[in-house]
Prior knowledge:
Alpha-Beta Plaits, 2 domains, four-stranded antiparallel sheet, 31% helix, single chain, Aminopeptidase, binds zinc ion, 16 strands, alpha/beta
Amino acid sequence: MDLRELLVRALSLYSPSHGEGELARFLLGVVKQHADDAWIDGAGNVVAVRGKGAPVVWLHAHMDTVVGPLEVRDEGEVVKGRGAVDDKGPLVAYLEAFRTAEPRGTLVLALVTAEEDDSAGTEELIRGGPPRPDYVYVGEPTDLHVAYAYRGGGKVELRINTRGGHASSPIYGNPFEELYAAYLKVREVLKPGERYEDFSVMPTVVKCGDAPNKVPVECTAVLDVRIPPGHSCRELEELLRGLPARVRTCTDPAEVSPTNPAARALVRGLLKVGVEPKLSKKYGTADFNLLIALTKNMAAFGPGDPRLAHTEDEAIKVSDVEIAARALKYAVEELGRWGPLKGQ
Ligand SMILES: [Zn+2]
């Protein structure tokens, strides 16, 4: 099955977070022919291994997408469908690199579940499974840039409760106004802004009131907060202390050196395929933030315009998937020549 066919098949198997089963079985069937060992683990991840010994290189990408199926269309140069950008374009590039590379040492392909939700797939991989990595590539749409930093992120819940009251003669105040005041207070302490170094604060779910003639008993809001490198979840909790705010989930920001060996090998791979290497820092949060626990020799990389991720317009250029696969293949082979790093 060639790369285009693989991409179209992967897109036609709708796979929202925790609903990756059918896609996983299909992908396992494909990688089995190219792997020494391949399996689906307890979290539903597809794991495949080629070769043995050091160095161990991981190719990591996620199978799940955000919810909302889209019609799959092969338009020649471009293929459209839910997940074309995030993350099936990158995933197919990683699979192609896995089956075409001639690695020294061990090459691991990890196609994970639930990246868009609770990262259950990557959490499982971090606990154990395939050989531990010396180097990791994380498949995400970076427009073929070498990404070396991701912001952290947390979900902050604001909650205001009152005793209700008649809308015409309230005696307990209005929780909506208190909720809004709390939101402004959060902005005051986090000082959100547009720059990479800034926090960002975005209200995503706001709920208030249940009847037109009654003062709301409870108002809640979820704020999607992004945390820039140099700050942490702990700091976020401390900054919010004293406010009616609770940090529900949080992932720390992650940054590796842009000249770490995985990034350098990829830069050489890109030069080989005629792409001018560009570095970038990402505004979002990804499995990169978790995988940093295993190694700092890491880069995120993949085809696809990240601005189209999660939109109704997800589309990927087939030629970019091919280029990404070739650049990665060279990078993996280069790392094989360099061997494992001492003292990591
Ligand atoms: Zn993604």
